[in-house]
């Protein structure tokens, strides 16, 4: 039986079926911040907690064996989902932020004064601040690629920043504010020409489209479980095995060692070397179940559905007078994801979000952890509507009706 997205899968998400204190039905348009979990993910985590819970690795007893199988099984699922060449290339972390901090600490340990890291002005704070901290510690130079006229990363400008001193190029596959899809191929090719490693922040791509680390040709890729139908507290780093093998540990503790002596210790091979302490086991089980859920549709189908939905959102929103949408216009053939950040010429973004909430419509307002990008766009913040597999065209209509009514109300008050 072919599984259907949108209205066809809404019943899988119990949280969506609710009436809010405003007496309105929930219209959830904030999945770029965090997505919801289908019953199958909730059930898998509950089953693990009620039947299999034990600490992983080394335990001889039945529950520990089950827990280990579940945790390592989740790693296999992630590896297959992003087409890693080996399961050891997947390191579980608390989220994408921790995965980037891991790379900054462990890969960063090999960088020295004068080495360069190239980023873009559109990065999420979690792909900026870890590099700023590292740059301070090791006297590195950070360079920032600007945006082109479509408000995408300007690949030519980025390439012009590269030099033999560039050790890493790190950028978001899909911008959580612009919805722009980065010109990955061009950037990776340019980085390889100067021998730099590439880190892709795939927080907003892995949940929404097929992502193949081998095809992308990246050295590192990070994502968060909670944006892809899984729970918070789990994310992953993909790292090319030779690179991970060369990298020193970043946190010390149990699990990450080979032998410990009072005089010093030796370390486990990857991925354990980078997973100190008891890991988020139930969360990994949840992420594995989320991957099963998304795979039941197929990521090509997820992308196809979201492209339709995203194009409709963009069109309806761009028809509202006084609205400026950031990022590329999909009608120019530019690839963009199913999210729109926008401002109205006179109504403040946080007022829009507050009034939309009165109609049960959940959108985000603020800087979306991209303050430098908002400065670049000449805005203090913006409102953002972001879509996922369970959203429908009707919900977009509800959003647009509520938005128009809010704007009219503010016009009357003036
Ligand atoms: N990068 C991007 C592009 C994101 O959208 C987010 C989440 N908003 C992050 C990084 C950080 O993810 P997390 O907070 O789950 O670590």
From TrEMBL:
Example GO biological process:
cysteine metabolic process
Molecular function via GO: cysteine desulfurase activity; pyridoxal phosphate binding
Q: Which reaction does it catalyse?
A: (sulfur carrier)-H + L-cysteine = (sulfur carrier)-SH + L-alanine
Q: Which Pfam families match?
A: Aminotran_5 (PF00266)
Keywords, ordered alphabetically: Pyridoxal phosphate, Signal, Transferase
What cofactor does this chain's UniProt record say it requires? pyridoxal 5'-phosphate
- Keyword Signal applies: yes
Q: Does the keyword Transferase apply?
A: yes
Record's InterPro entries?
Aminotrans_V_dom (IPR000192), Aminotrans_V_PyrdxlP_BS (IPR020578), Cys_dSase_SufS (IPR010970), PyrdxlP-dep_Trfase (IPR015424), PyrdxlP-dep_Trfase_major (IPR015421), PyrdxlP-dep_Trfase_small (IPR015422)
EC annotation? 2.8.1.7
Enumerate the spans annotated as Aminotransferase class V domain. Answer: 27-399
What PROSITE patterns does the record point to? AA_TRANSFER_CLASS_5
- Protein family membership: Belongs to the class-V pyridoxal-phosphate-dependent aminotransferase family. Csd subfamily.
Protein name per its UniProtKB record = cysteine desulfurase
Protein source organism: Prymnesium parvum (Toxic golden alga)
